[in-house]
Write a structure and sequence with these properties.
The chain has one helix and five strands, in the order αβββββ. With about 100 residues, the protein is an alpha+beta fold. The structure holds zinc ion.
Length: about 100
Amino acid sequence: MRPPDRRQRRPLATGAANAEVSPDRSRRNMLARHRKLPTAYASVFVPQGRRSWYWLTFRCPVCGTYVFARSRQIDQAPGPRKGTCGHSVSVVAARIYGRQEAA
Ligand SMILES: [Zn+2]
């Protein structure tokens, strides 16, 4: 009968290099993922009448699906977003319709 704790012990990593690299690397991965997002040029419709959300329509640059999305705030409309087709894209407000400010 062997004692159950006769496992191989993992050698302790001399953590300094690891500890410094891993958070930096993950941060860079996140940035890279954001930068890699394909850009979708959206038409933005400002709230009008009883509609209180901003509407966005854009064509998914990945699969070509026309995506409809909504946003409470105009400044939340652009940026990384996941379309209904499932692709993550970086939305840019290319056109804004129904701007309420005086021209
Ligand atoms: Zn798509």
